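thread from #wetlab-drylab

HS: before we spend reagent money on co-crystallization trials with zinc ion, can we at least see a predicted complex? here's what I'd submit
DV: go for it
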Amino acid sequence: MIQGRVLLLNGGTWEPLTVITIPRAINLILSGKAVVVEQSGRFLRTVRSQFPVPSVIALRRFINVPRRHASWSRPGVLARDEYTCIYCGARIGDVVRGKRLTRRDLTVDHILPQSRGGKNTWSNTACACFACNHRKGDRLPGEAGMKLRWEPKTPRTSYLVVEMGSGPDSWRRYIEISTP
Ligand SMILES: [Zn+2]
């Protein structure tokens, strides 16, 4: 069995879908479901013939795939919110209570506090400055008389980048590099 992986692109959009094995890729090509986009330069030899091993293939038809989402992390929340406090709008460099904000003064706030069952999810967490986080404490924003300036949402990201980052150079032009 020949070792290696093949990048599978969606039909029409050439958006990366996933990484598959070489036998599966060859199967998709032989069954007419996919076309070769890039060759690997290697060959799969059988008794009767040899078959060029692809590096990138694309489906003939577009398939609808739900986008996967980035997994939650504290740095991810701060980056998503661009280091801006969801309650007062303060950013790095702004002066809050006589203190110039640095990255360390921006914290991850749980909108429904963890002490009350709030979870580490994209929609329950947001960037908050130390002053707002302290003022809110273990309360809901409404209880503390505070308002969210925006609705925290789950960011869209190309989750495949991590997996594909270890792939061959021939994949790179098909992979959208975006920071979550
Ligand atoms: Zn604030």
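DV: The radius of gyration is 24 Å.
HS: ok that's useful, forwarding to the group
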